Each structure stands twice: as C-alpha cells, then as structure tokens.
C-alpha cells in the first residue's frame, strides 16, 4: 500500500511538472494582454491642449475732425462701448481725440464706428425778420441772417456795450468805492436747430434792449434799460416762413413781429 502511495505521489508530481509550462504560458499571455490594454488606454488618452495666450492689445488715437462739442464726443464714446464691449475708450478734450486700447480686431471695428459718426454736420441759413407794426400797419422791417450748424447754438449780437458804475462802501474803513461793468444793449438772437430732414426743430430767443431817457433813481449814473424778450420752440419746414410771435413796445402802440425762414446752407 505504501508503494502505491509513492507511485501516486510521483504520478501527481509528474502531472504538476506537465502543467507548469502551460500555466506559465497562460500567465505570460495574461501579462501581455494587460500590457497591451494599458498601452491602448495610454494611446487613447490624448494630451490636454496648451492654453492659448490672450490676443495682444495695442493703443490707437483717433482725432475727431467734425465733432467739437464735449457732449457729442461723450455720446460717441457710449456708442463705441456699446458695440465693441471689450475695448477701452477715453476722450481727450484738450486734443479733441478718442483714445482706444484693445485687440487689432476691436480697434478696427471701433475706428469704423468713429468714422461713420464723425461726419460733417449739416448747416442751415436761418433768416429772422423783425417787423415794426403800428396798429395794423407795418412801418419797417429788418432782416438778420445767421448760419446754424445742426445741434449747435448760433448767436447774433448787434448793439453797444454800455458802462454801468456800481458802488459799495468798505466795511472796515467806511470809504465808498466804485466799479465799472459793461452790459450789452441792442439786439441778440440765439438759434439752435436739431432734428433732420423735414423734421427740424428750432429754439429761438430774441432779446432787444435799449436805454430809456429817464433814470432809475437809484444813482445819478445808473441807466434804466428797456427790454423785450421772445422765446420760442417750433417745428419748422425748410423754405416756409413761420411767425414766431410778437412783442409789444412799451410807451406806444407799436409792436414787433418776428418771422423766421430756414434753408439749407450752400
């Protein structure tokens, strides 16, 4: 029986010896498959792309050729900021220029916007006729014309600068002192046109002053001024006469009637 066990043990040992090469081959095969799978997974994982640097920025100065009012330049800044959101915009009032900082594409777009908005403004010839009317009869008429640029104030002044002596007493010494200041006496017409095409809107102020013969009674040198003022805001049509209003002249039956006629300036 002991002999049979020895024979069985040898037989089992022989079986293990025959199976060992097979197990080794399986282990190598599995190892190769694992390495192949790892290599494949490594090949499937693509490297993360490098982050691109931000676009380079530069400065640009655009000098305004037609805009002269700070409000117009501020409106231009707002328009550029609203359309080109990533650009930085500044207005240099001393140089009347727009300062820009941004990428090349942003600068090109902003420069095109500025060129589209900074165009010559239309100008109009505005003629005022002031008629002197006694009762219902016209006695005289005077014509005054000025050139009004759209959106800007135009003013005409005719008359004299009259010296006005003012006095005061020094609080410390009690001595009187006098100063001379000048006031404008005559006719002043102020006009501002806004809008476009047939929808023009005209704001007008007509002011006429004169020296009266009597004195104010405050001082021997203090003059008494007579003044008539007409302010009007109306929609006008080019080439058509519009009556703005009339002014009564104190001390008589005369009145002044103001008419206006607007045409495109040539």
Topology, element by element:
Blueprint: H1 2-44, E1 58-63, H2 70-83, E2 88-92, E3 97-102, H3 104-117, E4 123-134, E5 137-149, E6 153-169, E7 176-196, E8 199-215, E9 223-236, E10 242-248, E11 254-264
Antiparallel strand pairs: 1-3, 2-3, 4-5, 4-11, 6-7, 7-8, 8-9, 10-11
Helix pairs in contact: 2-3
Structure report:
- With 266 residues, the chain is α+β, with helices and mostly antiparallel strands.
- The protein has two domains: 58-117, K Homology domain, type 1 (Ribosomal Protein S8, Chain: A, domain 1, 2-Layer Sandwich), CATH 3.30.1370; 123-264, no CATH class.
- It contains three helices and eleven strands.
- The strands form three sheets. It has a four-stranded antiparallel β-sheet with strand order 5-4-11-10, with no helix packed on it. A four-stranded antiparallel β-sheet has the order 6-7-8-9, with no helix packed on it. Strands 1-3-2 form a three-stranded antiparallel β-sheet, covered by helices on one side.
- The longest helix has 43 residues, at 2-44.
Shape: elongated
Please tally the helical runs, counting DSSP H or I stretches of 4 or more residues.
3
Q: In percent, how much strand structure appears in the residues?
A: over 45%
> Quick one: how many beta strands?
11
Radius of gyration: 47 Å
Helix content range: 25-40%
Q: State the strand order across the main sheet.
A: 5-4-11-10
Structural domain count: 2
Main sheet characteristics: 4 strands, antiparallel
SSE class:
alpha+beta
Low-pLDDT residue spans = 1-13
Order of helices and strands: HEHEEHEEEEEEEE
Distance between the termini: 138 Å
Mean pLDDT: 80
């Amino acid at each position: 029986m002991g002999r049979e066990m020895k024979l069985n043990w040898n037989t089992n040992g022989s079986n293990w010896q025959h199976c060992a090469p097979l197990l080794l081959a399986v282990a190598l095969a599995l190892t190769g498959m694992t390495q192949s799978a790892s290599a494949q997974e490594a090949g499937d994982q693509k490297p993360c792309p490098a982050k691109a640097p931000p676009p380079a920025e530069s400065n640009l100065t655009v000098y305004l050729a037609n805009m002269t009012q700070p409000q117009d330049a501020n409106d231009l800044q707002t328009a550029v900021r609203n359309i080109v959101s990533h650009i930085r915009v500044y207005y240099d009032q001393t140089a009347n220029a727009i300062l820009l900082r941004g990428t090349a594409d942003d600068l090109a777009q902003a420069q095109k916007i500025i060129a589209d908005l900074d165009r010559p403004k239309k100008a109009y010839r505005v003629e005022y006729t002031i008629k002197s009317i006694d009762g219902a009869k016209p006695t005289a008429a005077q014509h005054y014309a000025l050139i009004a640029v759209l959106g800007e104030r135009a003013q005409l002044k005719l008359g004299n600068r009259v010296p006005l002596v003012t006095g005061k007493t020094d609080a410390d010494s009690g001595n009187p002192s006098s100063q001379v200041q000048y006031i404008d006496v005559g006719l002043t017409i102020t006009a501002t046109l806004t809008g476009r095409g047939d929808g023009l809107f005209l704001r007008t102020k007509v002011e006429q002053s004169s020296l009266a013969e009597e004195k104010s009674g405050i001082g021997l040198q203090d003059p008494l001024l007579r003044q008539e003022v007409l302010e009007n805001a109306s929609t006008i049509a080019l080439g058509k006469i519009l009556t703005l209003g009339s002014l009564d002249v104190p001390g008589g039956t005369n009145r002044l009637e103001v008419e206006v006629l607007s045409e495109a300036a040539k």
